[in-house]
User: Fold this.
Amino acid sequence: MSVEFIEPSNSAENSPKNLSLESTLKDLDLFNFKVDSSYLAKEVARFFQAHPLLPGVILTVNGEFLGMISRRRFMERMSRPYGVDIFACRPIIALYQIAQTDILILPGVALIVMAAQRAVQRPPELLYEPIVVQLEPQVYRLLDVHQLWVALSQIHQQATWSMSELYYNLSLTQSDLEAANSQLKAANSELYRLANLDGLTQVANRHCFNEYLEKKWQELAEAAAEISLILCDVDFFKKYNDTYGHQAGDTCLQQVAQAILEAVNYSTGEVSGESLVARYGGEEFAVILPRTSPEIAVWIAEQIRVWIKELKIEHVNSEVCSLVTLSLGVASTVPRSSAAQKNLIAAADRALYQAKNRGRDRVILDADRF
Assistant:
């Protein structure tokens, strides 16, 4: 059994200063608390008692990352009837296997503002779970989500103060006012960009996808024009992560996202300004294609599939071939105010499921009209 614990400094003198829009998770105080999965739960409970600020523990097996269990989930399990009797003298992995849930793992180079966005997109029951920060291969730390909100508040305060200074410290000549307005617009544009981009892949995020689909749905309903949706899923991505590691998985997602974006821009031509490529969740991506027929949408989806395959990203444990591939589902409709966008998403999702079920690395069109 082994345990490693280095507590970050939380004093005011050593708290992060001068945070900006470019600050990353590495700039924050991170907890380094690791225990081997064979460590007894009662010993972990003593560490929680001795270190009241500790948000959770990182579990390892033979020095390799296994997962994380938060203080809240640990205490909730131990406080149940007979919880102490069941788990106290058993290895912590026994409690972890029952209490484990989805873990948000982010690279240390992730921007604080984007990490906050990812954190708040989690289900309500996971909002206050600590974040696992990967500094390098097999080097993981814990970030208390409260520290993330504090850092985000400092960044917004700093940005607000900087914009206020532009008005009060510059002389009020016309040219200076124009320069101040230009800087203010640039700052606002950057904030908007960060709020609508996925931090890892640099394509639109889920929030942006939802807003854009709503906007185009209303526009095309009035024009009685078609809209198509492509849902893409990286085949056997969990096996890719298990084989090559999470950092390689992040790099793979970045390459896939950019290839989808390039394939869509190349294929859509004049209407490329209306199309939107977004990270829909995990290893899943979505493409919104306004004013696009199902036949053209299927052709664009096929172009995306070919572009991904031509990246030639090795995937030795794929059951399709030895390369990273995509399965794609396509759906199209003419929006009506009485119909919901969720019907289009459900249709594309059905087609995606069929593509996976028929062997993956293929494009399927959902023929139902609604």
In short: The first strand starts at residue 3 and ends at 6. The chain has a mean pLDDT of 85.
